[in-house]
Amino acid sequence: MLGFTALHLWHLPRRRFDRVDWQEGRIWLTVLEWVLWFLAYVWLVPLIGYMPVTLVFAPLLTLRLGYRSRKMIWLSVVIGAAIVLFFKAFLQVKIPGAALYEYLPGGIRTFFILYL
Amino acid sequence: MDLITEFFAQMHASGSYLARWDVVAALLAGSIGGVLIGAIPGVGPAVAIAILLPATFSMDPIVGLTVLLGIYGSSMYGGSIPAILINTPGTAVNALTTYDGFPMTTRGEARRALSLAYSSSFFGGVFSVLCLIFLAPVLAAVAPMFGSREIFLAALLGIILVVTAHRKQTLIAGAMACFGIWLSTIGLHPATYSKRYTFDQGWLSSGVNLIVVVLGLFALSQAFILLQGEDEKVRLTRLKGSFFQGFRELARHPRVASVSASFGVLMGMIPGVGEFTAQFMSYTYAQKTSKRPEDFGHGSSEGLIASETANNAVPSAAMIPLLALGIPGEALTAMMLSVFYVHNVTPGPQLFQNDMDFVVALYLALLILNVLVVAFLLVATNQLIKVVNIPNRFLGMSILILSFVGVFSLRNSFTDCILAAAFGVFGFVLKRLSLPVVPIILGMVLGGIMEVKLRSAMARVKTPLDFIDRPIAAVLFAIIMLVLILHARRVWLDYKQQREKSRSTSRASTRFEAHLSRRNRSLISERGKTVRSRRKTYSRPSGDKS
User: Fold this and answer.
1) Are B183 and B440 in contact (CB under 8 A)?
2) Which parts of B304-443 are beta strand (E)?
3) Domain residue spans in chain B?
């Protein structure tokens, strides 16, 4: 692996660092923002719940992306809800109930843990 | 005659697999979902399959595989729509469709191009499934001849082909494949219980999960690319009339269609080759044998037929090495392999011997899928093309949310999510630098297979020659050597061409200093002296007096 990588780097044309390279580096760093969004989402789901977090996360991220129209915000809420219902309620994928759901009263608690 | 009777008996038995409601639902979901996913530029089948993979683990193997196969097989139908209408391929393999499809749209023949793409895709898909159904008994006879040694060599051939297929990027593709092999070795070894590359970290002892890597490299990196990019304004024209005319036009080019489909089947069967090579070969063939080769790239119907038939013939053929030998030839089949593993079904020669009904059921599902997709497209194309309008960044947001389901539902582990995010950033950087990602996945899957098979093969190998003393092993070894020799030859030719290019002055710098330095070099060289003396001889001033 190292040998192949070294050969690849050796074959590249040699030149100094350019302004374009710094710009490219900045683009690589901007991705870290989306990584943080993703990790925050992952961290919050087991605490607050899959459905509630998704219903807030989707419109928030949509706003951050620069969409201000009501249509797009509502669309993001609908898509978020549809994803949760499809995967958790219909396909029953393994996403555990949130810590917050424990405080809900009996019947609703089971419903939330199983489907939302 | 016996073979045919046996075959029909098998078809009958496989029918019971397909007559279940969940399989029918999976077929519908896979075909329609696949077309939609293909039609949205920016979401390929790899992203969709990576996200859906953990969800299919709880399903029956036939149901889960039908959904995934459906997405794989039908995404290319959908991918041709934006390729033809807006010059943006919906999936990577539809890139060649833009060459002839988009010029047809600019001529006002969008409907003709789309119907031709659908009919050629249908022909390619059905042709390859039929080939496979009739080849199945032959495969069932040949597959048991593959022992551990042969499977090891076939996997090695797969890795070598994947690496050498990345022309001009072979070195980095090799590095990526080795990186994948290394990733597969991390963790506690199941046979020897030795810890490998775990650095005494608990979270590394269970190894790096393939799905985490796949989701990071395909889904999350694609989400990052879309989130970081810009939305594009797309203008679509409404299509009027029926899409049936393509079938009539396709019937006028039976030679191009059948040769392209055969290329697709052949290239699909060889691990590590796939759609791009099949398309390239069939397109070149169609252009060379065409009466109007100058039309290619400017809206030639033959070019469109060649590329669309070839790429749709590949998915079913790609199932051959997966089912018969347990060796995936590309990233998508590598992902499907994990569905088999989860259900403790080991694809390979035993599957063909003991569970032929299952294999034939998969082929039949593919056949039905092609019919469903064409029927859907003939009716719903006008509604379907609206998905092209979904803004890129919004799509990125949706993929980010969907990726979470994929990673988190696997083991409910936060570490997996961090790892997937890290691979997402890595994939993003690789895509920005236009470096290959697929060799990592194949290295991971094939590396694991190679290790297991090499261990079991070594028990019977006393001298190095024992490794290749069986006929199939010898043939595979010969093919590996041939591929390596051909590759070395190509590298040498490329090097020679590049050296010639660097010596010629046509691309040299036009700066004055560079010009002077070149002139100076020429003046002092031996060849320069001979050239100057020759010029002197021929351009001596004439002695005639006028």
Assistant:
1) yes
2) none
3) 2-460
Contacts for B345-350 with beta carbons within 8 Å, 24 or more apart? B345/B61, B347/B322, B347/B323, B348/B143, B348/B146, B348/B151, B348/B324, B349/B143, B349/B144, B349/B145, B349/B146, B349/B324, B349/B325
CB interface of B with A, residues 160-179, below 8 Å: 171-172, 174-175, 178-179
Q: Measure A100 CA to nearest chain B CA, in Å.
A: 17
Instruction: Provide mean pLDDT across the span A85-97.
Output: 86
Residue B458 CB partners (closer than 8 Å, separation 6+)? none
State how far the Cα of B211 lies from the Cα of B418, in Å rounded to an integer. Answer: 13
CA distance B457 to B443: 20
pTM of the predicted model as reported, rounded to 2 decimal places: 0.84
Chain A residues within an 8 Å CB radius of B387 = none
Contact residues on chain B for A66, CB-CB shorter than 8 A:
393
Instruction: Please list every residue in chain B whose beta carbon sits closer than 8 Å to the beta carbon of residue A4.
Output: 171-172, 174-175, 178
Sequence-ordered list of residues with C-beta below 8 angstroms from that of A7, at least 6 positions apart, any chain: B171
Separation CA B212–CA B444 (nearest Å): 12
Q: What is the pLDDT of residues B101-122, one digit of tens each?
A: 888 888 888 888 999 999 999 9
Closest Cα of chain B to A105: distance in Å?
25
pLDDT score at B473: 92
Give the tens place of pLDDT for each residue, B320-361: 888 888 888 888 888 888 888 887 778 888 887 778 888 888
Q: What is the pLDDT of residue B546?
A: 46
Residue numbers in chain B where pLDDT is lower than 70: 1-8, 10-11, 13-14, 238, 241, 504-510, 537-546
CA distance to partner chain B, nearest, from residue A85 (Å):
12
Distance CA A85, CA B480 (A): 49
CA distance B150 to B147: 5
* Interchain contact, B403 vs A38, CB within 8 Å: yes
Q: How many CA atoms lie within 13 A of B474 on its CB side?
A: 5
Sign of CA dihedral A18, A19, A24, A30: positive
Q: What is the ipTM of this complex?
A: 0.93
Residues 6+ apart with CB under 8 A from B247: B115, B119
Helix, strand, coil percentages, rounded to 5, for chain A: 80, 0, 20
Instruction: Answer for the pair B127, B261: CB distance below 8 angstroms, yes or no.
Output: yes
Half-sphere exposure of A41 (CA within 13 A, CB side): 29
Please say if the pLDDT value at position A33 is more than 70.
Answer: yes
Q: How far is CA B107 from the centre of its chain?
A: 31
